[in-house]
Amino acid sequence: MKLKLEYLTFKFNKKSDLIIFLFSLSIFFWGLEVLNFELRFLYLFSIFIISLKTIDWKKISLPIFIIIHSIFLTYYMGFEKNNNYILQLAIILITSQIIFSSHELILKNIDKLILNYFLILIILLLGYFLIKINNSNTYDFKCFFGCFSQSRVIYDENSHFAISVIPALFYLFIKQKNFLNLYTHNIIKVCFLVICLFNFSTTLFLGLILMIIIFFVFDWRNSTNYQKKGIFILFLFSILIFMFNHQDTLARFNNLFKFDTFKIKKLNKSSEKQMKQIVLKNNIDYIVNKIKIGNDINLNSKKFLFANSSSNNQKDLPFNLNDHIETEGEREFILKRNRIDENLPDNMSTDVLIKSLKISYLSIKKYPLGVGLNNYHLAHDEFIDQIYTRYKLTKIFNKEDGSNNFVKILTEFGIFSLLFLFVIFKFIFNKSQNLEIKYFLLSFILVQMFLRGAGYFNGAFFIIFLVIISLLKEKNIKIDKGKL
User: Fold this and answer.
1) Would you say residue 315 has pLDDT above 80?
2) In a domain, 3, yes or no
3) Is the model's pLDDT at 138 over the cut of 60?
4) Are residues 203 and 314 in the same domain?
């Protein structure tokens, strides 16, 4: 007997509405903290409300594998075990049981999830606007719509907002039956688009284009004319925001597709040896790698760079510490010493992406089984000195999670990352007629997987991944037009 879930009729149920409200905050406002509590974990409290089902070992096979894999590598490679390590394993188990017990409720109430998201977002934006306008006479009124990267309110970056809003946009524009009246439904869509317009990020543009391409390739024939129109509107909006921000977007692709960009360069052995001799002879600390300086070295900083040198005779240094003139030899030494290559793409985000890919490549060569759950930083620390970057600051950015979740999963799970890719591509090829649900879930995963990620427990990545597993495992749940 197939399980049929009727569409939401907005009848209020205190228990289910509370669960959906908790998930709304965790899924869409994952970067916020209240009284030092991170809202991304708020959904864990639903374990006291939902009716837990008997554990289905087939469903939780992948989470169990993640835990076993993590424990094995922790002991095999001698990694440190602490309270955070135990806590994250517990969160994986608890989250798995919560999602496998409540995924039907979540899927029935995506309408409410998005409505909660919209209302809370508007309330927060309005509240921030009133506070700023009351405390400042020079407030930029366009920041009423967010300015997330500037204000660091609600979201730390515009790209974090993109991770949350893209799934909502696809759901709203593909869904044929308005969950409120048509007028209200359209107001919500327009408001989201306006907020996006004032909070552009390359993640937003590429995320929309990526999902539109996937829709066109895999589900265009299965879609209705109404859904095609919705996708076309999103495509036009993508072109619009690109036209307003094309310089920033194109700058990220400068030199990106050259072979040398992804080549892992090795420093000439004689040059490396000479540098080590200079460093050792003058007792130079690795302070050069710690200070936050740009590529354009102001040679006023010469003395600062070698402040820890105890040598009185510094004739062997490639610096004249008594002048403020930067010679080509001095500059070359600084760049090589810090593994800086000025031929790489001139964009910080692109530089971080290239660095992350190189670290994943080096890591999987040495550790084909991976380095273990949330141990990306260990691979980063081990291989960062072997990698050239365009900017010095790139070497310390995204050292915990990489630039996206693909490089993180590849590094931490090695060859087993194919299991994650199998699940994702199996869901992509799912010929579901309920396209709004499919693309709501896929948008969360694919944007974070290949464009901009923030780890497994941010951006609802792990939550949505478990919901997808549930849908693939539940053979008695049919995703059909208008029903699950």
Assistant:
1) no
2) no
3) yes
4) no
Q: Averaged over 264-292, what is the pLDDT? A: 49
Same-domain pairing of 48 and 167? yes
Q: What is the pLDDT of residues 178-211, one digit of tens each?
A: 767 788 889 999 999 999 999 999 999 999 999 9
pLDDT of residue 5: 42
Nearest to 180 by CA among 330, 310, 413, 9: 9
Can you tell me the mean pLDDT for 62-70? 89
| CA separation for the pair 301, 307 (Å, rounded) | 9
Which token pair is 465?
């991944």
pLDDT digits (tens, 9 = 90+) for 91-134: 999 999 999 999 999 999 999 999 999 999 999 999 888 887 77
For 352, residues 6+ apart whose C-beta sits below 8 A from its C-beta are: 394, 397, 398, 403
Mean pLDDT (the chain) is 80
Classify 414 in phi/psi space as left (phi over 0), alpha (psi -120 to 50) or beta.
Answer: left
The contacts found for 48-57 with CB under 8 angstroms, 24 or more apart, are: 49/15, 49/18, 49/19, 50/19, 50/98, 50/101, 50/102, 50/105, 51/101, 52/97, 52/98, 52/101, 53/100, 53/101, 55/97, 56/100, 56/473
3-state DSSP: the chain helix, strand, coil percent, rounded to 5?
60, 0, 35
Q: What is the model's pTM?
A: 0.83
Tell me the chain's radius of gyration from C-alpha atoms. Answer: 25
Q: Is the domain of 191 the same as that of 276?
A: no
| pLDDT for the residue 147 | 78
**Angle, vertex CA 106, rays to CA 420 and CA 22, nearest 5:** 100
Residues 102 and 207 in one domain: yes
| Beta-carbon count within 10 A of 184 CB | 12
70 and 195: one domain?
yes
Work out the angle at residue 146's Cα, subtended by the Cα atoms of residues 405 and 440, and round it to the nearest 5 degrees. 45
Residue 64, pLDDT above cutoff 50: yes
List the one residue out of 429, 430, 424 whose CA is nearest residue 478: 430
For 23, 24, 339, 391, the CA distances from 28, given in Å and listed in that order, are 8, 6, 38, 32
Q: What is the three-state SS of 283-336?
A: CCCHHHHCCCCCCCCCHHHHHHHCCCCCCCCCCCCCCCCCCCCCCHHHHHHHHH
202: which strand partners?
Answer: none
Q: Which two tokens stand for residue 278?
A: 């200079």
Q: Structure tokens of 413?
A: 């799970």
> What is the domain range of residue 299?
269-337
What would the DSSP string read from start to end of 135-160?
Answer: H-SS--GGGGG--HHHH-SSSSSHHH
DSSP-derived secondary structure letter, 392: S
Q: Which residues pair with 340 in a beta bridge?
A: 389
Quick check: 390 and 398 in contact, CB under 8 A?
Answer: no
